[in-house]
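Troubleshooting log. The previous run stalled partway through. Resubmitting the same two chains, unchanged.
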Amino acid sequence: MVLAYFITVIVLALVLALSKNRLVQVLVMTVFALGQTAFTAYAFVFRNVGFTDYFAADSLSLIFLLLLTVVTVTTIIQSFVYLHKRNDTLAHRSYYLASLVIFVASMTGVFLSDHIGVMWVFAEATTLSIALLIYHERTPEAIEATWKYIFISTLGLSFSFIGILLLDLSMGGSAAEVFTFSGLQQALAAAPDKMMLQLAFILIIVGFSVKMGIFPLHTVCIDAHSVAPSPVSAMVSTSLMNVGFVAVFRFYMLLSGSSLVTWMNHVLMIIGFLTVLVAAIYLVKVKNFKRLIAYSSIENMGIVAIAIAAGGIAWTAAILHLVIHTFVKSGIFYQMAQLIRVYKTKKVYLMGRYMHINPLGGIVMILAFIILSGIPPSGLFFTEFMIFSSLFSGGYAFVAVPVMLLLCFIIFTLAKYFFKTLYGPLEPATLEQAEKISKWESIPQFFLLLITLVISLYPPASLMGLISDTLAIIPK
Amino acid sequence: MATLLIIIFIITLFYAAISVRMFTLINLLIVQGLLLFGVAFIELQELNVVNLIIILVETLVFKAILVPYFLKRTIRQNNIKREVEPFISGVNSLLIVSVLIVLSFILTFSLQQDFYNVIYFTVAFSAILTGLFLMVSRKKILTHVIGYVILENGIVLLAFSVGNNMPMIVNAGILLDILVSVLLFGFFMSRIRYISKEFEISSLSKLKD
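Second attempt completed without errors. Output:
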C-alpha cells in the first residue's frame, strides 16, 4: 500500500509536469488530495501494524500525518488562488504543482518511516523537492534563498547522516539492518561508548535543525519562508518544521533509555533558549511581514525544544503545541498571500487600514493573533502554561523566567505590527488601488481557526490518546 | 590493497588544498570517485550481490562520471573564470589541511573502539573536514559545490568503514541524492548569472534583517 502510494504520487507528478493543461491540473490535484486523505485513513485504520519492511504507522506518525493532510488540502486550494492571481504561465503552474505533490509525499514518507536511514532519505527528498517551490517567483531574492536553502540543508543533513553512521558504529557496526525505531531503544540503552553517542546526537540535532528551524541552522529556514509563495510558506512553517520535530523527537526517544538523558536535556534546553533569544533579538529589526511570522515560528519551535528537555507533562504540551501551531500558522500564511496582493509589498511599514480594505481577512488576523500570543481561550496558553509549570517544578526556573520575558517581548513586537497593519494609517493612493479580496478566499483560514478553537477548548479524546500512546514508550 | 587506495585518497586531499585551477579540482573528484569504487569493490564483498552491484555501479557512474561531467559543463556554459581564487593562499591551505588530518587522527583515537578500521575512519573524517574547509576558504560558489562533493565522498568512505550494512533503499537514496543535488546546484548556478557575473559567494547577501 505504501509502495502503491509512492508510485501513484510519482505518476501524478509526471502527469502534472508533462501535461501543462489547466483541466488536468485541477483533476490531478483533486485526485491527489483525495488520495492523500484516503491514505491517511488507511494508515489510521492499520496503525501499529508494520506496512512493509521500512514503514509503519505509530501514534507519533499518525498525529503529524493527520496535520499534514489537513494542511495539504487547504494549501492546494490556496495554491490555485495564488497561481490564478499571479497569472503564471501554465508551465510554471505545472512545475509548482508537481513539486508540491512530491514535497507532500516525501513528508509523508518521513512520518511513516520506521527505519532511520529511510527517514533520512525522505528528509533529504523534502529539501530537493522544495527547491522549485521556493524559486517559484523567480526574483533575485528567490534565487538566493533557494541556493542557500538547498546548500545548507543538504550540508546539514549530511551531518545528520554522519551522526546516524556513528550511532551504527557505537553498537559495533552491525545494527543497521535492524535500524528500526522500535527495535533500537534497548540496544542503545546498553551501548557502552558514551562519547560516540554524544557526538552522534549533536550531529543529528544540528542536521535536523534546518528542518525544525531551531538554533544553529535556522537562518536558511527564515530566508526560505520570506521569499517562497505564501501557500508554500504555510507548509514550510508547519509541516516541514513538524518533520524536523518528529526526527529530533524520535532520536530523543531512542536515546532516552541510555545514560545520556540529562546531558541531552541540557543540550536541547540550551538550543531552545538560544532559538527564542535569536527570534526575540531579530524581531527588533525585521521589516518584512513574512520574516516576522517566520521568526514567530522559530520562537515556537524553540519553546518546543525546551519542552522536550523539560519532560513529563511538557512532552504532552509540546505535541499539543505543535498541533495548534500548525493550524494557526498556516492560516496566517494564507492570509499573508492576501496582504501581499493588497499592498503589493512585504514591507510592514507600508501596510495599514487592512480592517477597512478587507474586514473578513482582518478578523482572521485578529483571531490568529489572539491564538498565537496565547491569550486564554487559545490552546497555546494551556500548552505554554504546562511547559512553564513543568520547568518550574523541575528546578529550571532560571530558564523559564528569561524565556517568559523574551516571550512577552516577542508578543509585544507581533502586536505592534499586527495592529499597525489592521488599523494604522495608509497613503490614500495605496488605499484606492487596493485590490478587493473575495470573501470565499478566507474560508480555509476560518476552517483552520475553527479547528484550533475546538482543539483548544475540547481536546478530542482520540488526539490525547494518540499523544499518550506516543509518550508511553519513553522510559520515565 | 584497500589501504593503498585510501592513502592515495588522502593525497588527493592535499592536492585539492593547493590546486588553483577549477578543472584540477574536478579531475580530483574523478580520481576520488574511482578510488571509492575500488575500495567498495575490495571491501564490501560480504554484502548480498544485488546491493553490492547497485553500490558499485552507482559509485562509478555517479561519482566518477556524471557529477564531474555536470560540474565541468556548468563551468563551460557559464564562462566561469577557471581560477579558484582562495581567501587563503595555497601553502597556508596545505598547512591547515594537514592540521585537519592530525585532528581527525586525534578524534579517531579518542573514539577508541574495538573496531578495526582506524585508518578508514581517519581518512573519512579528514575528507569531511577538508570539504568544509574548501567551502569556507574559497570565494567561488562552484568551489562550495566541489567542497560538498568531497565531504560526501568522506561520508561514503565512513559508511564503507562501518561495513555498509544499510539496506539497499538507503544506499540508492544517498547516491541519487548527491546526483540530484549537484544537478540542482548546477541549475541554480546558471540562474545566479542574473544576479551577478562574478559567481562569488559575496553576491548572495541580499536577504537579511
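Takeaways: The mean pLDDT of chain B is 82. Chain B has seven helices and no strands.
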